[in-house]
Each structure stands twice: as C-alpha cells, then as structure tokens.
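Lecture notes, unit on protein representations.

Consider one protein chain, 369 amino acids long.
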Amino acid sequence: MSLPNTLGSNFAFTCFGESHGKCVGVVIDGCPAGLEISENEIQQLLDLRKPGQSIVTTQRSEQDKVEILSGVFKNKTTGAPICLIIWNSDQRSSDYDRFIDTPRPGHADYPALVKYSKNNDYRGGGRFSGRITAGFVMAGSVALKLLFHNLGIKIVAYTDELGGIKSDVSGLTIEQVEKLRYSNEVRCPDLDSAEKMKAAIVRERGSGDSLGGVVKCSIYNVPVGIGEPIFSSIESELSKAIFSIPAVKGIEFGSGFAGSTRKGSENNDVYSKSEQGGVVTRSNNSGGILGGLSTGMPITFRVAFKPASSIASLQRTLNVTTMQENDLIVPGRHDPTVVPRAVPVVDSMAACVIADLALKGGFIPRVLR
C-alpha cells in the first residue's frame, strides 16, 4: 500500500506539517551514504521559493531557515533517514476562522471539511497549502546534489508563460537559460517577456485578481534506460509528483498536445550519430522519453498552474451550515501568481523522481566512494 504523504521508494521522502502549524519538513529515506551536503546548500534552493521576496509574491515574512536534525554527520550523509525542518513564524491564523463554514472558491476547504469531519487544520489551507512545498524543495536540494555528483544530471525549470505572455528562449544556450532564469522576479530567462509578465502581475494584483501560467522543465545528461515500465515509467512517476504540487492542473511531455495535431512523419524523432559518436535524435518531440524509458536526449515537460485562488476581489460562496449564499472577501497576504515560486518546486520534484528511478535502476550506488 502506498502512503499518501510519501513519494518514491528507493529515494523516498515523507513530508509533514501544515501552513500555520509549528513547522514543515521532510524525512528522506534511501539517500546513499557519503553525499556531501550542508544546511547552506539546502538553504540556497529554499531561498528561491520562500515568501516575501518581491511585489509578485505573498508578503508573508518567513525566514525558512532549514535545520538538519538527522542523517548527516560531518557534512556527509550517513545512509540513515535525513530529517529536515523549517519553523513557521509569521502566521495570522485568525484570518481563517471565518472560513470554517464558508469555503473559499478555488480552495480545498469544502472537500477537506467533509472528508475529515471538520478535524482538519483549516488555517491557511493546512496540508493543502503551497506552504508544504518548502518540504519538497528541501528533499529536492538533496536529490539535485545526488544526481549532479554521480551522473552529471542538471535540471533547469523556468517560467515559460504567465498571464498569456509567452517567453522565447530559442536564441539562448542552455547555460544562458540557467543563468538568467533567476535574474528577475518572475524567473523567466527571456528578459523582455519577464518585464511584461511582471507588469501584468502588478496590474492584476492592484485589481484584486490573480494569474496562472506555465513552467517548463528540462533534465539534461540523463543516461539511456532510466525508468521502470509499465506503471513506474518516467512519465508516470513525474506526473504523480508534479500533480502533488498545489495549483498544478496539467502536464505535457515533449511536443505534448501539439503532437496530436501532427502526422507521424512530422512527430517521429529520427535517430542520428552525434559529433562524439553516440546516438542522438534530430528532434526531441518525445521529450526524451520512449516506452517510459529515458532516450538520452533531454527530458522536457511543461506544467500548467491555475491562477492563485486567494484573491482580494468580492466573490460569492455558500455557508454550508445555514445553506445560505454569502459575499466573501479573502483577507491576508497571498501570491498574485504562484508561478515564479513554483519554479524551484518543479526542479525539486523532478530531481526526487529521477533520483528514485536512478537508484532503482542501479545507476547510482548505495554508498558513494
């Protein structure tokens, strides 16, 4: 039986905590012994998703300072479970008392209330809050280091589209995309589009509304044959992980839905010999995956995020106790879009999945020498 709060089987992590609880964190099990890792390295990635960084994010002020409680000794993993936590410090829980009986549109308030018979922690969304993705990033920071150290795998996600504004990175190298994606508040390496995206976010925030968008992710230097068909294919495992991120509503690999409009002769990736003498394909419409296995080409996918559900505009809802409709305004400090802060989360979840499959397939040893 799979556990609902645990992802993976060989590199597995269990996340815990709620938005307004004492802390959020993860326990990672299965990480090989001998990986050099420090709180500072984890903190660098965690800082990329923490709140209160700019006008395009929530103004909730959390330091999100990570603490390693176990599994690391003298800055190296021991092979034991790794427990990582951050403490919550800037909650305004009273903002949410009014939503016990009046669920917020776009949130999980109502189905959670019914499923758990009002025993769930509703403050800030509780377990359904984007706050829990801090744990995803903590686990991802370890997975990213493990993949790069052993296989040279790099994962690069960025904001590809926001509020209908699309980026164009066709003239940029992989290195430029990686360098430029965090050079601005919206995490888009196309700097012209980034300015337009920011303006759109500020405009919608001012009107009390929010925006959705798309994050694109590419995974480079993946060895051929990672993946465990049929039900643990790369697409299967990545999709499960990505859909565990709050606000995700879609994922497509390679040419995705556009491929459904093409002929096979247009969408097939033709094999060819690389300059180094290896096997490559002339295109990558498959997104680096065939039969659930990595082909050696970059694994590429795009993730659709819905507009942030907490908005300052007047909405209607239903009081589920009195069964009377009410006006509703959601107070508090909320993201006008979740997309920029989701970029390191997508990076992290992709890393955890590839690390899990790499260990399962024997591509990474259990003890690093």
